[in-house]
Structure formats: C-alpha cells, structure tokens
C-alpha cells in the first residue's frame, strides 16, 4: 500500500473522496494516467498495489463518498490498462459487484456506471463473471431508485451485446440461474428475464430451444401477469419458440407436454388458450414421443372442450379429434387403462360437452382396443351405469351406445341387463324419467326381441313383486307405443300362425303375469282374444283396484291409436272374432260408467254397424270351459281362437297350452294378493303398536297432570289455614 501511496499524490486521493462529482472525476482521470504509465512500463506489481488501494481504502470504506470515489477509480484504472486489463479483472470486478447491494442508491448507481465502463474496455474477457453480473442485474432491475434502474438497463444492454458476440458464453451454466428466477413475480425482473431469453434465442450458436423445458413454465406463468407489456413480451417469446419447434427435427415434447397439461387448467383465460394451442401443435408434430402422455393430454383437453371462451373450445375440439385419429399400439407405451381412467373421471364433469366427449372416447377405445378395454370393465361399469341418470338425454344415449358396444358379447349382455334391472329397482326415479329412453335405445342397438326376452327372463324370477309389477307395466307400455318395437309387435300378431311369434309370446307371458293389464294387452296384441276373455273373467275383487283401473284407462286409450287399427277393423267381423267382442265387453263391464274410458270404449263398440251381426254367427257359448267354445265353420273345420281355422286340438292352439297359461297367471296373481295382504297386515300391526305405545304413555301423562293440579290446592289450603 506504501508503494501505491507514493505513486498517487495525496491531493488526488483527497479529491477522489470528495463529495463533489467533478473533483472525483478529475481525480479518476489522474489515476487513469498513472495506471497507463505503469502499464506502458510493464510494472504490473505497482498496478496491483494501486487497485488494492482503491479497493480497501475506498470501495470498502464506511464513507459513501469514498466508496463512490473507489468505484470511479477502478473504472479509470481499467481504462488506463486498456488491452492489459484482463489480467487484473479478478481484483477489479468483485468490489464493483459487491457495491450493487450497497445501501446508498448513489453508490449503486456509480457501481453500474463503473461496471459499464469496465465492460466497454474488456468486452469478451468479461464473460467469466457473467453469472454474478446477471444475478446482480436481475436484482437491480427491480431497484427502488429510478436512476439506478436506468443505469442498470444501460449496463444490461451492453452485457447483452458482449454475450451475443462472445464465443466463451456457456448456456449450460446460465440455464440453472435462469430457471431459479423464472417464478419471480416482480414485473421488472420478469421483463429483464424475458428480455434475456429473447436475446439469447436470437443468437444462432446458442440452442435455447434445447433448454426450453427448463423455463417454459415460467414463461407461461408470465402470461397471466397484470402488466399488459409483460404478457405481450411473454407471448411473443412463446410464439417464437413454437415456430422454432415446428421447424426443428428434434424436440423434447415429453417434458414440455407435462408443463402444458398443467397450464391448460389455469384460471387465466389467455394462459389456457396459449397452452391448448401448444398442445394442439404438439399432437400434430409429436408422434410417438407423445404416446406415454396421451392420457395427461386428454385430461387437459376434455375440460377445455366446455370452456366459456369460444376460441379455447374450438382449439380443444380440434385437438381432441387429432388425438382420436392417432394410431397407437398398447404394446408400445400406449396406456389404455390411463385413458379410460381420464374418460371415467370426466364423466362426472359438470359440463355436458365434456361428458359427451368422454363417452366418445370410450366408444373409440372400444372400437380400436376392445380386448384391452374389457380388461378394465369392472373399473368403468359402475360409472357408466350411474351416467344413465345424467340430466342430458344426449349423454344418456351415448352411454347406451357404449353399453351396447360392450354387450356385443353374450356374457356382457346378460351382465348389462342384470345391472340395469338392479339400478331400476334401487332408483325409482331412473325408471320413471329415463326408463323408456333406455329400453328403447337398447332395443335399437341390441335387437329388441333379444332385449325383451332377457328382461322377461329376469323378471320372471324377480322376488320384489311390487317392482316386478311396475317394471312389467313399463315394458308393456313401451311395447305398445314405441316405433322401435314395431317388429316385435308384428311378430306377436302372428302368435297363432308363426312359431317364432308363439315362442316370443310364451317367453314374455311368464313375466307379464305380474300385471293383469299387461297380460290382457299382450293377448290383444297377439290376437289371442279367447284367452284375453278368460283372463278378464278370472279376475277377482282384489285385482280390480285403483292401479288396475288406471292401467285399464291407458289401454282403452291405446286401443284408439294406429297400433290397434287392425283390432278395430276386426270389429267389423263379429262372426269371425266373437272372443274379441267378449273381451272388450268384459273390459267395459269392469270400468266405472262415469269414467272417460267407459264412454270411449262404449262409443267404439256402438260404432260397429248392425249389418255385421246375425243370429247364427253370434250363438252364445255354453257355460263352462271357455276353451271348449267352437263355432261350426264351413267344411266341418272348427275355430279355437278368433280368426284361426284349425283342426280340433282341445285346449292347445299352435302349441300354446292356454289352460296352463291361465293357471300360471292365476298363481302369480295369487302371490301378488298374498303379498298385498301381508303388507297391509304389517302396516296394521305397526299402527297398532304405535297406538298401544300411546295408550301406555297416557296414564303417565294423566298422573303427571294430576300432580301438577293437586300441588297448588294443598298450598292454597295451607295459605287459608294461616
């Protein structure tokens, strides 16, 4: 230090610490001249002594003016060294960097000025301190003093120029530093960081794209910044990177896909739009690289399909279509189970559009990877069944499409119908609100006859008689009214002449026995009018209740629809269809005379023209077994059911044993009557128990009330005695 003091005049050192900038500046010029002479003489030891003096006595001084003088002195020494400054940078730069965190804003300002001048001299040699300088500039960009910020911006531009022209810059060492700061919220720091990313990306020799996954999330985070300028800068940088990705033959799609999936769920609309746009491009460009990420991508796309912003919905739908069109092999990292899990999760979405697309995915997977999907059937089956209660008809129809696709196999068909019946049993509202829609759609998708046969088989053994009755009534109404079941109705009309019709009739009969009106409807549809009449006559008092009359009212109104046009036309031939008349008059006799249904049916029967009748044709049957009614036809043939000329077969027509069928119906109705009596007795016992409990409680209440009444009277007596 003594050498340095002898080299620099005391007046210069005194001026270097002066409070006036001009004096410090003049002193710095003197130091520059001294160092320049020493450099020319090659006396670097003395130069080192001068730098040490400036550092220890000035830049680290507790006096602010000394620190300011020390900074300007170090810059002057660097200028004096000129081309030989590089070998002294290890002494010069650290004190300046240390001054960036000085409490005095003017010291920080002069530190920026000093480093700026130093950098101008040494240029590329400056790179060895880049990380420390970058860290310092990052902090100074958010400095509380506007002058310091301005000085830092000037220095920042110079450093960027130096970096872009240097071949010594290490992007590998810089990226960790950048990554650490990408989640900083300060707007000035964010601008600083985006600026550096943009500059470095513009350098041909620096591969910023290769490190994009390290700072991509930070850029997306800036898209939701409150500052429009920052959002714009971040968007501009992202757009540039996306364009580079499109033109690059090698991109790490996987790591970035994970980031995009997270950002697609952002609360910020602009962030979601940008993320889904990137995902769209990735799906088009990524190919096999994205196969392991299909499930995650799908999980990001499906919610966006129902986004409130139309632009997001459009891009999400396009991406979804692109993803569905891709071909992937489950043997090559394509996880069918993971995608199924996403689709199942989104079936619970509050948005209809998302639920619909989730179902489209299930259908797509079943069509492409049926065997793999069926391995996860137990995981998705319950969710699909619950989806049948969805408020959207379109969702329910799509759910049924998926169910039908699964049920192509016999074992899965049986499972579907069994579970469906279970759901109807435990959820009455499902049967009421969606029952007809579900049954009709399944009949279209899985063959109506097959569906009805399976339902009938299950209901035949149903232990819950109340449910069985309700279910049969629902199925019967669908059978009589739905256009989807027209082929079944046509087949049933041929019950007496067609083995296939007979087989279906017998198959349905057992379960239809749960409802008298369903059986009567089935007989009218199958044109087994004699049996319909027998069923009507077999009804007892308990059978003709309010529920029965309501069902009968519906049937009478249905008889006026086009479906039963054939039956109404048959009324024009009473000689050929006497049992039809008897059945209809039987129903008429069961109806209250003041009811609308009574008037409708009576009017219809009265509309039959009188010329249709003659005494011979309408000869009354003898009482006894109704199946022994035979009308002598021309040629000696006999009639056992209306309209069918057959040889005498006793009580069997076309292989149908109607006597046995009637007994089957009567037995089932007997079970229902016993069940109703049991229910009534249970309710009665429950009511009696409640009344008995009340009677036992009554004396206690009376006793309590007596105590309350007597106590005051005694008290009053004592009062009177006193």
UniProtKB/TrEMBL annotation:
Domain of life assignment: Eukaryota
Sequence segments annotated as region (Disordered): 670-722
GO biological process, one term: phosphatidylinositol biosynthetic process
A GO cellular component annotation in the UniProt record: endosome membrane
Composition bias, Polar residues: 678-690
Pfam families noted in UniProt: Vac14_Fab1_bd (PF12755), Vac14_Fig4_bd (PF11916)
Cell compartment(s), UniProt: Endomembrane system
Stretches assigned to the Vacuolar protein 14 C-terminal Fig4-binding domain: 429-608
HEAT repeat boundaries on the chain: 92-127
SUPFAM superfamilies, per database record: ARM repeat
InterPro entries linked: ARM-like, ARM-type_fold, HEAT_type_2, Vac14, VAC14_Fig4p-bd
Keywords: Membrane, Repeat
Stretches with biased composition (Basic and acidic residues): 691-703
Protein family according to the UniProt entry: Belongs to the VAC14 family.
PANTHER family: PROTEIN VAC14 HOMOLOG (PTHR16023:SF0), TAX1 BINDING PROTEIN-RELATED (PTHR16023)
Protein name: Vacuolar protein 14 C-terminal Fig4-binding domain-containing protein
Annotated source species: Sphenostylis stenocarpa
């Amino acid at each position: 230090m003594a050498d340095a003091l002898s080299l620099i005049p005391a007046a210069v050192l005194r001026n270097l610490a002066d409070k006036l900038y001009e004096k410090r500046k003049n002193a710095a010029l003197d130091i520059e001249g001294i160092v320049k002479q020493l450099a020319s003489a090659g006396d670097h030891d003395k130069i080192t002594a001068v730098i040490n003096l400036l550092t220890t006595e000035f830049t680290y001084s507790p006096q602010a003016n000394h620190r300011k003088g020390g900074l300007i002195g170090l810059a002057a020494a660097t200028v004096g060294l000129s081309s030989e400054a590089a070998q002294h940078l290890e002494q010069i730069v650290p004190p300046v960097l240390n001054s960036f965190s000085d409490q005095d804003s003017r010291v920080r300002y002069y530190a920026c000025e000093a480093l700026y001048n130093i950098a101008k001299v040494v240029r590329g040699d400056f790179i060895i301190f880049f990380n420390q300088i970058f860290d310092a500039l990052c902090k100074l960009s958010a400095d509380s003093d506007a002058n310091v910020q301005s000085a830092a911006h000037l220095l920042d531009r110079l450093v960027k120029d130096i970096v872009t022209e240097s071949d010594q810059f290490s992007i590998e060492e810089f990226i960790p530093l950048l990554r650490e700061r990408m989640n900083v919220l300060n707007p000035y720091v964010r601008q600083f960081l985006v600026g550096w990313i943009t500059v470095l990306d513009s350098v041909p020799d620096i591969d910023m794209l290769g490190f994009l996954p390290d700072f991509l999330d930070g850029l997306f985070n800036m898209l939701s910044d409150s500052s429009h300028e920052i959002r714009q800068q971040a968007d501009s940088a992202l757009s540039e990177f996306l364009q580079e990705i499109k033109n690059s033959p090698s991109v790490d799609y996987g790591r970035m896909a994970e980031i995009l999936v997270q950002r697609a769920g952002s609360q910020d609309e602009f962030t979601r739009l940008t993320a889904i746009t990137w995902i769209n491009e990735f799906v088009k460009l990524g190919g096999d690289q994205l196969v392991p990420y299909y499930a995650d991508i799908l999980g990001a796309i499906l919610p966006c399909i129902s986004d409130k912003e139309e632009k997001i919905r459009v891009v999400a739908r396009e991406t979804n279509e692109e993803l569905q069109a891709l071909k992937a092999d489950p043997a090559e990292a394509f996880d069918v189970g993971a995608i199924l899990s996403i689709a199942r999760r989104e079936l619970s979405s509050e948005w209809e559009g998302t639920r619909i697309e989730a179902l489209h995915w299930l259908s797509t997977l079943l069509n492409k990877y049926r065997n793999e999907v069926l391995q996860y059937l137990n995981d998705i089956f319950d969710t699909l069944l619950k989806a049948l209660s969805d408020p959207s008809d379109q969702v329910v129809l799509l759910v049924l499409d998926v169910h039908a696709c699964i049920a192509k196999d016999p074992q899965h068909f049986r499972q579907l119908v069994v579970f469906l019946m279970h759901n109807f049993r435990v959820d009455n509202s499902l049967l009421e609100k969606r029952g007809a829609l579900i049954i009709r759609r399944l009949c279209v998708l899985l063959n109506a006859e097959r569906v009805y046969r399976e339902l009938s088989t299950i209901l035949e053994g149903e232990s819950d008689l109340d449910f069985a009755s309700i279910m049969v009534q629902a199925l019967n109404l669908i059978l009589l009214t739905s256009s989807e079941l027209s082929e079944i109705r046509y087949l049933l009309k041929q019950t007496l002449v067609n083995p296939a019709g007979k087989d279906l009739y017998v198959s349905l009969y057992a379960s239809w026995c749960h409802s008298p009106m369903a059986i009567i409807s089935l007989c009218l549809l199958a044109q087994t009018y004699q049996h319909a009449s027998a069923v009507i006559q077999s009804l007892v008092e308990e059978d003709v209740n309010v529920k029965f009359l309501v069902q009968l009212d519906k049937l009478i109104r249905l008889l006026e629809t086009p479906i039963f046009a054939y039956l109404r036309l048959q009324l024009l031939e009473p000689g050929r269809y006497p049992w039809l008349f008897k059945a209809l008059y039987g129903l008429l006799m069961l109806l209250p005379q003041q009811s609308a249904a009574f008037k409708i049916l009576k009017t219809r029967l009265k509309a039959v023209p009188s010329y249709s009748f003659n005494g011979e044709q309408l000869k009354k049957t003898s009482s006894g077994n109704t199946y022994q009614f035979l009308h002598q036809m021309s040629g000696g043939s006999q009639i056992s059911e209306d309209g069918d000329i057959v040889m005498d077969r006793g009580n069997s027509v076309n292989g149908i044993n109607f006597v046995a069928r009637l007994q089957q119906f009567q037995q089932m109705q007997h079970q229902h009557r016993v069940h109703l009596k049991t229910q009534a007795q249970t309710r009665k016992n429950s009511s009696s128990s409640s009344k008995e409990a009340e009677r036992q409680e009554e004396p206690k209440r009376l006793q309590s009330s007596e105590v309350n009444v007597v106590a005051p009277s005694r008290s009053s007596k004592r009062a009177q005695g006193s």
